[in-house]
Design goal:
The protein has eight helices and no strands. The protein is mostly helical.
């Protein structure tokens, strides 16, 4: 299977899996998820600590580190388990992967095809927008290696 088709299939599959998570990408509670869940249960830090086998000050330290974005994933997992929660860890793209890739690929394709378009315009052979879109689409599908899309990006 060629690299372009494989990457496109992977993007579409991941987009289907990630779609339900897009609705959940709001900000975490100001004091963090662990604290919000603990408070909702009416559980004290000492009680949570007992469930985790740690002290109340350790729980407070963990909650602060979540709030400050310094908590380790393993610590989050331990907090979640003690709260009878499932830790869900995912990167959720702001836009569908196909859309993000398509935007980046079109920018690369435009740059690659710019010299040809310029020459055609000079020779009074400019193409209309629909033809240009078709040329870009064919270039992306037939010529562009997906790795080249990200080569020039920071």
């Amino acid at each position: 299977m060629d690299r372009r088709k494989s990457a496109a299939d992977a993007r579409r599959a991941l987009d289907r899996v990630l779609a339900p998570y897009r609705a959940l990408t709001h900000r975490r509670p100001p004091r963090g998820w662990a604290r919000a869940i603990r408070d909702a249960f009416g559980m004290t830090a000492g009680q949570l600590g007992a469930r985790m086998g740690v002290t109340q000050p350790t729980v407070q330290k963990l909650e602060r580190s979540e709030q400050e974005d310094t908590i380790q994933l393993g610590s989050l997992r331990r907090l979640a388990e003690a709260l009878d929660c499932e830790l869900v860890y995912a990167f959720v793209p702001r836009e569908p992967l196909e859309q993000t890739y398509g935007t980046a690929a079109r920018a690369v394709a435009r740059k690659e095809l710019a010299a040809i378009s310029h020459s055609m315009a000079l020779e009074d052979q400019a193409v209309d927008d629909a033809e240009e879109d078709d040329r870009l689409r064919r270039f992306i599908e037939d010529e562009l290696d997906p790795r080249e899309v990200w080569a020039a990006r920071p």
